[in-house]
Automatic annotation (TrEMBL):
Region feature Disordered, mapped onto this chain: 1-35
Pro residues bias locations: 7-19
TM stretches of this protein: 218-236, 243-268
Domain of life: Eukaryota
Alphabetical list of InterPro entries matching this protein: DUF6594
Name of the protein in question: DUF6594 domain-containing protein
Keyword Cell membrane in record: no
UniProt keyword Transmembrane helix present: yes
Organism of origin: Glonium stellatum
Alphabetically ordered keywords of this record: Membrane, Transmembrane, Transmembrane helix
Domain DUF6594: start-end pairs: 46-203
Length: 277
């Protein structure tokens, strides 16, 4: 009697093939390369690209040679990570509520039937397994919340402080990359994600590092202008001259307030009150 083979399930899943990185053409190295000539500087590859991106804008550089640094913000991945962390914390929150309910129902009560005051110190020394599990769970929640808050704050800062990439600047970047080819083509495909790119300009970096916005700078300038009448009065003894200085400084302050966002900080009535003082 011959053994019959049992056929497998008709819809058996076939595991996917492992991911393979694109193969780049290996460089042709010499068998015994000679020692480098240290009397000259050779810049290629990512070093060449980094030098170009860190190049200070000068007047003698043509417009098509000014490459603005651009990077991906990985918006979809950021949302994916935030959603994942958010659900993990929600799951831990539900587990904590379950442990709290179990401990609350098992806790002793007073003669009046009221639950006794809780004590973390007593629970840590004489508590049972549920108390230990809750303490351990709180530690896990603390670590997970730290990851979530850091990811959320970091992504929010990037979105607020950086500008989307400009189409013209993106074309300049691509043209320079095609002309000089510092890196492999598939490693420069990040430029194809137009809607996911942001640009970094030198003025943006300076304003971000200084931490002083336009409103703060204008307010600081106005406070310095208020000191000018005191200095002018010491040098101009005449009444008419002092009145002229007051009118000039007042009109200057009114122009600055009306032409900037400072006018929205207070109502018109409050500005008039401040001016009369």
């Amino acid at each position: 009697m011959t053994a019959r083979s049992v056929p497998g399930p008709p819809n058996s899943l076939v595991p996917p093939a492992p991911f393979q990185y694109p193969q780049a053409q290996p460089p042709h190295y010499l068998a015994r390369p000679p020692g480098p000539d240290l009397s000259k500087t050779t810049v290629i590859g990512y070093e060449l690209l980094a030098d170009k991106l860190s190049e200070c804008p000068r007047g003698d550089i043509a417009g098509e040679d000014k490459v603005i640094p651009m990077y991906r913000k990985f918006e979809q991945l950021n949302h994916r990570i935030l959603l994942h962390l958010q659900d993990e914390i929600s799951e831990l929150e539900e587990e904590l509520r379950y442990l709290d309910e179990c401990i609350a129902q098992m806790s002793p009560v007073s003669e009046e039937g009221r639950p006794l005051p809780a004590s973390r110190r007593i629970e840590s020394r004489h508590g049972g397994e549920l108390h230990w599990r809750r303490t351990n769970l709180l530690g896990r929640i603390y670590l997970k919340l730290g990851q979530y808050n850091q990811a959320l704050s970091s992504y929010s800062t990037v979105v607020k402080s950086l500008d989307p990439a400009n189409s013209e600047d993106l074309q300049v970047y691509r043209t320079w990359m095609e002309k000089h080819a510092p890196v492999e083509k598939f490693e420069s495909q990040f430029l194809d994600h137009k809607n996911d790119l942001f640009s970094i300009t030198r003025s943006k970096l300076v304003s971000s590092s200084s931490g002083v916005g336009p409103i703060q700078s204008t307010a600081l300038g106005l406070s310095l202008i208020l000191l000018l009448p005191l200095l002018a009065f010491a040098m101009i003894p005449g009444l008419l001259g002092r009145l002229f200085i007051i009118i000039l400084i007042g009109s200057t302050e009114a122009t600055v307030v009306a032409s900037t966002e400072l006018i929205f900080l207070m109502t018109v009535k409050e500005w008039v009150t401040c001016a009369s003082m």
